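User: Can you recover a sequence for this backbone? Please restate the input before giving your answer.

Assistant: Of course. Working from this structure:
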């Protein structure tokens, strides 16, 4: 039986990882999450409820900024690996609260690495972001591209987290694996993210805001594919510090995304045209050749298959909320 700490385990990606580990068996899982109000804490509690009664899962209500609270969790467990997914997320909100993003994403990561050092934990998986690439003129984005030009506080904090991971790996013999996620979507996606928000508004006949002319492109990645990469990173035993892109390696225009949602919902969207927002990048596009070769990463769900699956989940969960 291996012990894993999953920070942010009540959230979107984290809860899917916990599900995967439970299905696999052989894991004792500790979830740390502060259930903050960035989006409804009830949604996070609903995610946790999926694991009610399972003796392999323990939940610790703690904020990663609180080193004393984290120390108590570590004192009661002997972790083999840490998967650090807890963060203040989102580009636009970070423009309003940069200090909060720095305190959580940088100091929180430092707290966890310090405890990993103190307790001799040798495997640390860090959830980073494609936003670290900023406005990258070279596409697709490769891990050895420079990340010195982030254009939002969120992106800066994720780049800083990667650098701190490198430092602790170098100094304290901790294997740190940084995973740059590219626009993750799927069941239980955060309600503030575009696919979930657009789906809800279109289904309600309300306008959706389209920033720019609709030609911005994203590498949308289905959550099951992301979890495949995270799981491989937990077992990675190569270089002591490594960075991997996890995406679908396909880009989709915003206009095309809206068309796919319209088709899946059977409803036309009402478009509210808005200018491009500060901090937004025109394109994200993952070069996943390194992850394919080293981790065996092999995404299987493209956007044409993923959007109907998401809408099916949305409709099913909406029906449950109404009954």
């Amino acid at each position: 039986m291996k012990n894993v700490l999953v920070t942010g385990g009540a959230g979107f990606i984290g809860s899917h990882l916990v599900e995967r580990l439970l299905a696999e068996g052989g894991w004792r899982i500790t979830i740390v999450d502060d259930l903050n109000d960035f989006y409804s804490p009830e949604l996070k509690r609903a995610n946790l409820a999926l694991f009610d009664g399972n003796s392999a899962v323990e939940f610790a209500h703690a904020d990663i900024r609180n080193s004393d609270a984290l120390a108590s969790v570590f004192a009661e467990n002997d972790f083999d690996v840490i998967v650090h997914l807890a963060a203040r997320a989102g580009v636009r909100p970070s423009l309003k609260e940069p200090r909060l993003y720095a305190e959580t994403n940088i100091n929180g990561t430092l707290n966890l690495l310090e405890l990993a050092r103190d307790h001799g934990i040798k495997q640390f998986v860090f959830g980073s972001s494609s936003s670290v690439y900023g406005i990258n003129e070279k596409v697709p984005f490769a891990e050895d591209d420079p990340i010195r030009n982030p254009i939002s506080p969120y992106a800066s904090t994720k780049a800083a987290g990667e650098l701190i991971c490198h430092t602790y790996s170098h100094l304290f013999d901790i294997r740190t694996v940084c995973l740059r996620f590219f626009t993750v979507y799927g069941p239980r996606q955060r309600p503030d993210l575009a696919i979930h928000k657009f789906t809800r508004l279109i289904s309600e006949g309300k306008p959706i805001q389209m920033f720019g002319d609709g030609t911005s492109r994203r590498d949308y990645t289905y959550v099951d594919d992301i979890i495949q990469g995270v799981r491989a990173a937990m077992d990675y035993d190569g270089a002591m510090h490594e960075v991997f892109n996890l995406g679908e390696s396909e880009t989709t225009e915003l206009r095309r995304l809206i068309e796919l949602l319209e088709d899946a919902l059977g409803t036309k969207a009402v478009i509210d045209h808005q200018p491009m927002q500060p901090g937004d990048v025109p394109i994200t596009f993952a070069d996943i050749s390194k992850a394919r070769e080293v981790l065996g990463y092999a995404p299987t769900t493209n956007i044409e298959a993923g959007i109907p699956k998401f809408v099916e989940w949305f409709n099913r969960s909406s029906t449950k909320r109404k009954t």
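That completes the design. The longest helix spans residues 98-119.
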